[in-house]
Amino acid sequence: MKFIRPRVTHSLRGRLLWYLLAAITLAALAQASIAYRTALHDADQIFDYHMQQMALSLRSGTPLSNTEAQQRLEAQAEGGTNNDDMVVQMWSPDGVQVFHSVSRAKLPQRAVLGFSNVKANGTVYRVFSIQTANQTVQVAQDLAVRRNMAGNLALRTLGPIAVMMPILMLVVWWVVSGSLDPVARVRSQVASRQADDLSPVSEAGLPDEVRPLVQELNLLFGRVKTAFDAQQTFVADAAHELRTPLAALRLQAQSLERAESLDARKLAVSRLTAGIDRATRLVEQLLVLARQEAAATSTAARPVDLAELARRTVADLAGVAAAKGVDVGVQHADPAVVEGQPDALHILLRNLVDNAIKYTPAGGTADISVRSDAGQVVVTVEDSGPGIPPEERERVFDRFYRVAGSEAAGSGLGLAIIKAIAERHGAALTLGQSERLGGLSATVSFKS
Questions:
Q1: Percent of the residues in the chain that have a pLDDT greater than 90, as a whole number
Q2: Of 37, 133, 172, 380, which is most buried with the most CB atoms under 10 A?
């Protein structure tokens, strides 16, 4: 046999309505139960009192005859006491029944004095018995009469509640639906947007519980828009910068095709090779920049030893420096550990040292130093090259910007990559003039 699981709604509106309506229904049922029990208790109190008064009125110092007992019962009825549902029996001291009311119910001839419950004739009777020297009086009542009266009283009590329940349910439905209308409005705004529409969602009229969610959504839209704009700028800049070297490669290939002599052919090949190298370098830098931007939030930070990383960077570039005749080395290295992304920090140091080597003439010097002091780690790369004029030091951080008159080949992306990595690690990057070597001094300050 296959069991079908009940479907669970995930609608906030549906859940609120179901729970509130169920609470109203349970409250009404609880009220009905309490009203019935209260009415039954009150009916017991009233009828027990009437039974006791009836038995006491029939008590007499001499045995009553049937006529006298009947007259007293009729007198109580005229006084406002309804005895139709009462069963009255009387016995003499020797156990002979001297009176029985008109009711057909036959009850036991002996009962416990006072109040008791007796099963007879397929029902339960509430019995009150009193005994004197001349007679025993027994008054009984079917408990079903009391239950019927309690039920009638409970129904009269629950009448207003039964009328108010549908009204209360409608009010709950109206309040819940109206309270969730702002959520539906936000959903409609987001659903009707185009893919490139990243403007903020309106927060007007939103409840306090929903407003923080919309505020975070707007912050997310802002971050996505920033990333989207940066990507568009990057693609536009890359396309613009690649157009020039590709056009140069085309011209150099045409020159190689038109070369007639061996010397002219060799010159064209060397120029074509240099152009390919420049284009390759540009593409590599673009890929590095794209990877670093993509890894900004995807790579976890961990402790990185900058002194060890500086030594490894110098070892990696020692061959390039030797080929150009530049003396490169670690001028000072304090033990320094910072939290960061190892690969990104390696690229940062490598680009700094590579730029120093690139712009330092043959026979010059390029040094890197790592100093730790007062909770701060400072990495400095100095060279004996021409340096950068003060008015150009802010612009060189822009992508694809190169200082006018520079003889070294470059893509204009090295310092942009360095700055992006430094900012991601909460470090400050500054450029200045080296007092020791006379060239450029690039300083990166980390909080250890």
A1: 2
A2: 380
